[in-house]
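fyi for ur records
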Amino acid sequence: MPPHRAVLCFFFLWIAGISAQASPVALDLSQQGGQLTDFTVEYFIDDFQSLDYEAIHKQAFRETTSTTTLGTRATVTWYRVALHNPGAESRSLFLHLPKAYHVRSIDVFEERADNLVDQASVDLNDASDHPLMYRGTVVYPFTVPSGETTSLYVRSHVYSHQWFSLKIYDDEQSRKALVGGHLDIALLVGMMLALVFYNGLLYFATSKKENIFYSLYLISGLVWIALSYGLIAKAFNAYGDAVFVLNLSLITMPIFLILFMMAIFETRKFYPTEHRILQGMLALLVVTFSYGLFDIAMALKPASSLAALMMVVTFSVSISLFRKGHPLVKFFLVGHTFFVVFNGFAVIYYKGLIEPSYINSHGVGIGIVLEALTLAFIISYRIKVLEDIRSRQGELKRQAATDPLTRLYNRRHFMTEGEYMVEQARAAGQSLSVIALDIDHFKAVNDTHGHNIGDLVLMNMADIFRQFSRDQDLVARFGGEEFVILLPGADYAEARGYAERIRKAVQAQSVEGVDGSGVRVTVSLGLTEVNAAMESVESAVNRADKALYEAKASGRNCVCYFEAVACG
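which gave:
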């Protein structure tokens, strides 16, 4: 090697050695208040996961912020921060690691003048009673003597993603920080719990399978939110492997979302191409979930990429269904757009490609809640659509069963419902009577006063029936001026009293004619008691008709009985 090249290599190696062993730039505590929450720290990724405190001094550290994310390739990472106290009195401070709840272990080393003065280790599998662990946050007390510099080395060993946050407080601010926090997460979880309860009520009301998938989606989402943002740690003081496995909810959540899409959009029946695409994505998620049952940490490493693929697939399928005119997918697209946008920020954040911010770090939670609210609206809207359809169907059935002029039941409905009422009377051993009624000389009313007045007379008759009938009575217009009434629970005496009341009420009423004069009509009525044990409703109506003909032959405006043909 030429001499000048050897000199250059020696120079660069000497510079690298100085850089690797250079001391960190210390933060001046005289310029800080009682809290440091956003400042520069240094980090080193231990790819071999085996370096100790002594060996780490020889490594070259890089700069980052005190709240950072380094993705999935930084399983074991060392962080370093130095603090200098130029004041006349010692400073007692507290190092807070608020995201400690999701790691495997935390080690803290306190150094002054290149000497290790104290250290602590926290294994999250045995941290519930650890003196440094407080509701998901590791709190390490340390001192910076007057005129000296204290360096802190933090070794963070995570399961999958290296999310890190380091804060420094004095005693007062430390207490405040530990008391507050997680209110926003509690609010998100509370909203989702309310949606789970609401959807449970809907399931009992409708028994639709999409309600089950939506409920499971909600439960998966709220478990992941509560776990990932520290609410479970804070509420239950639970950490380590047993709790980390709940991260499988990050995989079950898109599984249930896809199943929900298949059910609510009925892709199997109407959209086979989109259904196969969703099935493919579902199969990939199920395989990942199955693998996660054996190695959750490894299954979560590609979770960000898998989430990105899932968002692309579901969004593309939604666009396709929208273009094909599905009425509900436009609402789903609104909610899923929120989900995709906010989760997109989160995926990039988890991979360590963008700087931390509230939106980035909480993107998944925000996206889940916004989409969950939209899915709740879709379910409610679909129920409304189905109720509207049922209402229209009910209206069509009502129109098919009723006379359009009088709004009384028609002959077809009377015969069907009447047969059912005869069976009920037979089973209960009750009396049942039928009345056939005809308006006297109705053709003359139409000829003399016109059909408009004739229609008014018919509608007036219907009002009289409604006035004197009971809720259980069945009143129908058989056609023209003929009406039939079925009286459950009424024997001869009761049916005769009813018939007389109708006859007298009609006789007393009048309809104003075209010339202002009152148009009065009378009715003839035929009555018989139904032999429920032996005959049909049609046979009873025929006998009532014979009694009606007898009433007309006897001078009209009277009630006749089939068996006793006497008029009253």
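Confidence is low (pLDDT under 50) at residues 3-21, 564-568. thats all i got for now
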